Structure formats: C-alpha cells, structure tokens
Amino acid sequence: MKGVLIAGMMSLFMMTIAPGVLHADTMKGRGRAQTPAAQSAVELRLAMRKLWEEHITYTRNYIISAVAELEDAGAIAGRLLKNQDDIGAAIKPVYGEEAGNKLAALLRDHITIAVDVVKAAKAGASTDLAQADKTWHANADDIAAFLSGANPNWAKQGLTDMLYRHLELTTAEVVGRLKKDWVADIDAYDKGHAHMLMFADSLTKGIVKQFPDKFRR
C-alpha cells in the first residue's frame, strides 16, 4: 500500500516541475547515469523546493503590496493561500487526506496571522502586534508538533527552531519596509529565501529516510 502512495506522491510532485527538467538519459552522476530511484530523490527535492519557494516568494510579494497599499494585495494573499493548499495536497498520497487537510489548515492560519502581523505593524498598534506575534508562534508550535508526529525523522525542536527563524526573518522584512530601510529589507528576504530552501531540503531528507526502500540519495 505504501508503494502505491509513494508512486502517487511522486506523480503529484512531478506536476509541479516543468516538463523536461530531468531525464534518466541525461542525469549523470560521476560519469554514469543515475538509477531511477536516485532520480526520484532528486525530483522530490526539486518539487519540495518549488512549493516552499512559492511560499517565501508570495509572502514577499504580499508584504510589499500590503505595506504600500497596492491594489493587488488581496489577489496575492489569495495566491499565497492556494500555495498552502498545494503543500497540504502534496503530502496526502503518503500521509492521507486528513493529514494533508490538517497541514493545509495550519499553514493557512500561518498566512492569515501573518496578515494580522503586517496590519498591526503598519498601524503601529503595539498591543495588537504583540498578540498577533504570540499567536503566530503558537501556530508554528502546532505545525512543528504535527510534522514531527507524522515523521520521526523530523525532530520537533529542530522544526520549531526553523519555523521561528522563518517568522523572525519575515518580521524583519516587514520592519525594513516600514522604515524604508531597503538594505535591511533585502537582506532579510535573502536570508529568508535561503532559510526556506533549507527547510524544504530538511523535509525531503526526512521523507527519503522514512521510506528508504523507495528513494536513494
């Protein structure tokens, strides 16, 4: 049964990768073509990176538009929420429908709370900002608990630390833009982007380790 689920997961992940990115006859590893199993691990990593890169990119776009009060802020927020659904859907073939819906819901909360954080920071409402930030971190705790419960290779404390760092860098972006400190703003985004890719890679490594008979490094 797990074999069927893994195959389904890979099919779903492959839909997120542009056709032609990877081919068995062109993938080379130290002078020889990689095995199909090894290629699957690479495809999984690329697909996971794409999903979480969309997360950080559309978060960035929303911050810019919301702070500047641009007309596209609502549309970007909608696209960002769709990304959370996409991430939830990506785990369903392995962890089930209920788990995928739960992760999507937690990530949607992460985004809606982020919207509150931006609004409070922009309005200079310190009390509201403190409450939103507290709720944001509680949501990160819930995400870490959920993921660590699904995969023993995803340590809860490690996930918590990575999610807190994501919140820290996202907040730094908001503060940088509000202060028009463009250097700090860009630096926070660059660090946040790299951090998100590292987070995605950590998730991939956990899946590969949990299902060693289906993936090869």
List keywords for this structure.
mainly alpha; 217 residues; 2 strands; globular; single chain
Based on Cα principal axes, name the global outline. Answer: globular
* Count of DSSP H/I helices: 7
Order of helices and strands: HEEHHHHHH
Describe the biggest sheet?
2 strands, antiparallel
Low-confidence parts, pLDDT < 50 over ≥5 residues?
A: 1-34
How many individual β-strands? Answer: 2
Estimate the helix proportion, in percent: over 70%
The main sheet orders its strands as 1-2
What percent strand?
under 5%
First-last Cα distance: 23 Å
Q: Provide the structure class.
A: mainly alpha
What does this structure look like?
With 217 residues, the chain is mostly helical. It has one domain (2-18, 35-210). It is 80% helix and 2% strand. The protein is built from 7 helices and 2 strands. The chain has helices spanning 2-14, 36-68, 73-95, 97-123, 126-150, 156-178, 182-210; strands spanning 28-29, 32-33. A two-stranded antiparallel ribbon has the order 1-2. Helix 6 (156-178) runs antiparallel to helix 7 (182-210). It is globular, with a radius of gyration of 18 Å.
